[in-house]
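Help! Submission page says 'invalid entity' but I think these are all valid:
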Amino acid sequence: MQRSQKATSTSEKDFFLNFIQKYASIGTWECDIVNDTLIWSDETKNIHEEPLSYKPVFETAINYYKEGYSRSTIETLFNNCVEKHESFDVELEIITAKGNNKWIRSIGRPIIENNQCVKVIGLFQDIDEKTKITLELGRREQLLTKTFDLSAVGMVTLNLKGKFLDANKSFCNTFGYTKKELLELTFLDITHPDDKNKGRQAIMDMIDGKINYFQAEKRYFAKNGKTVWAYISSTVIRDNNGTPLHFITQINDISQIKTSTKKIVNLLDTTENQNKRLLNFAHIVSHNLRSHFSNLNMLLDLAKIEIPESTDNEIYPLIKQAVDHLGETVDNLNEVASINTKKDIQLEPISLTNTFNNITNSIAAQIIASKAELSINLNDNLKVMAIPAYLDSIILNFLTNAIKYKKPNEVPKIDINAEITDHLVILKIRDYGMGIDLKKHGEKLFGMYKTFHKHEDSRGIGLFITKNQIEAIGGKVDVESEVNIGTTFTIELKKYEEN
Amino acid sequence: MKKIDIACIIDDDPIFVYGLKKLMKIANFCESFMIFNNGEEAINNLTPILESGKNMPSVILLDLNMPIMDGWQFLDEFIKIESHKKITIYIVSSSIDPKDKNRLKNYQSVSKFIIKPVTIDLLGKISKELIK
């Protein structure tokens, strides 16, 4: 009766033990030194991924330990346990029967009889998951620490009152403080007085959890007193209960960008001012010149009426001519000034064919007199975006130039063609006239008051104004020319696109 | 043809004034002149004349760029005088700046913008317009 009760209690104990072993992932083992036998509990076999029927062998059991550090460590520890009666508790790696790598904890204790170690009994625990997580955490921690320390961006952690808890190298470099010095300071201590209130509300909101982060441009002082412009990005770190612990703030030093921006803005200001002054100057000059011209003109008219005899000589007509030229020059100056000052230019679609027809009609006399041969090859539907007056003036100037600068003793021949690209109309006006030596004159061709031919009508203002007008309506002009072969002007204009 | 009685010239340029007077005489434009060298002089003298209604000029030829008080400032003062509408004003300027022309739209009592130089033909046209 008693025996059977005891037997029951033993099996209950075994059951309980197995239960614990299974759920705690802890197995037991027993190594009999005297008989060289080894016993594993079921859970120990599980951890090794061996079947429950498996019988461990004392001599080879050690081979489950991963070769290298793990195996040599267990060897040493086990030997010390047997010989020096030292217990051990170690975390090592094994390779299971299925070839899996596992972290285990092995605990061994010697059983001493007559001062001799007869047995080593121990525990065997599967700590794989735990260890792997710990290792991973360690790796991440290291990664974060390295990121924090070596980041090119300044990074600090601050307590909720703004006191520095940590600062990385970049931050220290930017501000010229050592980490030790910083830990004695608060964020406000190095903030520019004008920016101290900046973001105060955002910080409150961040602590209250209304916002997750805060970004701003703020000014700070470096240790040497220099202002540091920074773009900061701040976020709050909370514990598991959501209680705010501290801030992490990143600081980008944008002082250089700020300085460059300031320089650029200043330069722009200066340029704009200079432009305004130049324009003003152009207006004054043209206005004043114009009043003198009109006075001269009026006086010459008066002289002709009042003192007719004073005009009956060689000089009077020359003076009259000079005054007329002065008037033209002033008008040209004015025109150029007005092209360059027009803002918000409104372009409208204009038919190229119509424009050419109008111009050729208006210079019909010139065309007939010169017997000019015009070959206009344009699609009737072709429309460009332009200001009508400008387009007229542009075409007129190119056509009259082509007629004017014909080869002596030849009738002028002019070809007009257009190429169409996605957004542009490329108009080509080709003449077979005298041509221009572009090597000599190329750079000055579209300059003001440049003439290249000794022609009675050469005034040298036409191309300059034409180029200005083309550019004012968003176009471009280019020229190819060879002396005695002819000239081709290529004019890029914006194409009218129907939606 | 009926002739303009008094023409008023407000201009600081003596050559222009000289020339214009001559041209007006040749064109038989008016009986007599009233000349002022700048806006201030003109407004100081014209105010009592307009108020009394005697010896009023029928036309003012006004320059824009003048020292002390320019043509625009003159206009601003002039339209404050009650009977100013009886007088026709022509702006006579060397300015061909479209900005000046646009600015003129703010002044109803100004008839026209004339760009110098003034010619006899032009005076004839003005004369016709005024007598109508």
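Support: the input was valid. A stray whitespace character was the problem, and the output above is from the cleaned input. Strands of chain B lie at 4-10, 30-36, 59-62, 88-93, 110-115.
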